[in-house]
Structure formats: structure tokens, C-alpha cells
Amino acid sequence: MSAEVPVTDLASIEAQIVGSQLPPVHLWHPQNESTIDIRICRDGTWLYRGSAISRNSMVKLFSTVLRRDGEQYCLVTPVEKLLIEVDDAPFVAVSLEVFNESEADAESHQTLVFTTNVGDKVIADAEHPIHVVYPPRRGAASDDRTASQKTDQTTGQATGQTTGQTTGQTVAETDAPANVANSEVDDAEPSPYIEVRDGLNALLGRAVWYQLAELAVERQAGSSSQTLGVHSNGCFFPLWSGENK
What is the CATH code of the structural domain delimited by 91-244? Predict the structure, then answer.
């Protein structure tokens, strides 16, 4: 039977993980399992018993022991597994830097580096793909329309290194390409994500999504449809295709 953890246990959880930036949570399978009244809102705010956790250092610390088990999210220590609630994705990407490794064919040689609300840096590559979930079209079946989550390897091997000058600038919403950032799909906006680690995604903040849309390039997909997407670290990530019309 799951039981709520008392407020004093927040301090004890913090004590257990102090000094460990990325603990090996995948190796921890404690027998003690309970629930704790922690909720991560869609905007990245962490709530404890309905009140925002104001200490950023505590949020950062707890995020390092966050794990996804199927559809459940939990905080894991060697002695305890605490189930929490996540509205959408546990992280939010709040900024984007663009590095070009070559002046020639800069688009396909660029590297995209995202920063999350807890300060993690994530390079978009084969292990950290970008994908976009579109809401159902009006009158269509209620299946999620998702831009392919599989990465399309391009020439050159993906690496974790970034060189060159940062070129990305925040793009105003009104300047975003109509086919991507201003897509009208059932009057609702798409939900773009990047995988941070081990199935834990970051929802791209609005400014980051519009910046990414500004970087989109066209690519032929099949005989008739076209895809808009971005390159990063030797991979191509679709953002929009003709199927999302």
C-alpha cells in the first residue's frame, strides 16, 4: 500500500543525494515504495503539497534522481522509491544555442545545444532526439500525430563536441515559419520535445520552439510530401510534414 511521505522526508531525500550530480538511478531498485505529494507542472514548476518549491537548488537536486518507469515517474534513492505526478514532461528547455562546425553547408553541420530549466545541457543527436507531437486534426481520428522520433543519420558521424560560433537568436512568435510554429491543427499548438536522458523528455519552451522553427529546412519525403526539420550533430529531426496539414 502506497503511503504519503511526511514533510520531514524532503530533507532526508536531499541528504541522501547531496554531492552526487547524476546518481546511477537505473541500478537502484529499493523494496521501499511509496508516494509523495510532488507534482511537476507543464511549465516546469515543482509543487510540494500544492505549493511551489522555491529553492532552485532543491529542484535541481531532486531532478538528478528522477526516473521514468513505464508511464510512472519517481524519485529514487538506494533505499526508497517515491512516486510523483508529472503533468507533461519533467523538464522544460528554456534556451537553445546553435553551433556551426563548417561555413560550407552549415545547416547539416550544425549542432543544437538545449539548456533545461534545471541547468542541464543537452545536445540533440541520435541518443537525444527531437520529436513533435501534434494534436488530432479536427474531424480526424483521435490518434496522436507525431513527427518521426527516429533520427535520420546523415553523412558524418555524430559526436558530442560543439565548435564554432553561437548563431541562434530568439525569434519572435510572429516571425516563425507558417508551416511549423504557426501550424493550425485543431486550433492547438504542437508539443515539441527533446529527450534529456533515459526516457525523460524536456518540453521546448515557446521561445525555443519558435527559434527552432526558424532553423527548419525543407526536405523531400517520398514522391509528393515534404518535411520541414532541423539538423544537429549528423542527424535530421522532422518538425513538420505534409501529413500534419
Answer: 2.30.270.10
Query: What confidence tens digit (pLDDT) does each residue in 87-105 have?
Result: 999 999 999 988 886 565 6
CA distance 165 to 21: 28
- Identify the CA nearest to 125 among candidates 111, 115, 138, 135: 111
Question: What digits encode the pLDDT tens for the residues 49-71?
Answer: 999 999 999 999 999 999 999 99
The answer to whether 76 and 142 are in contact (CB under 8 A) is no
DSSP string, 36-102: EEEEE-TTS-EEETTEE---HHHHHHHHTTEEEETTEEEEE-SS-EEEEEESS-SEEEEEEEEEES-
Three-state secondary-structure class, residue 27: helix
Q: Give the residue extent of every domain in the chain.
A: 9-86, 91-244
Query: Residues 6 or more apart from 58 whose CB is under 8 A from it?
Result: 10, 14
- For the domain spanning 9-86, the CATH number is 3.10.540.10
Q: What does DSSP assign to residue 142?
A: S
pTM: 0.72
Q: What angle do CA 22, 28, 31 make, to 5 degrees?
A: 145
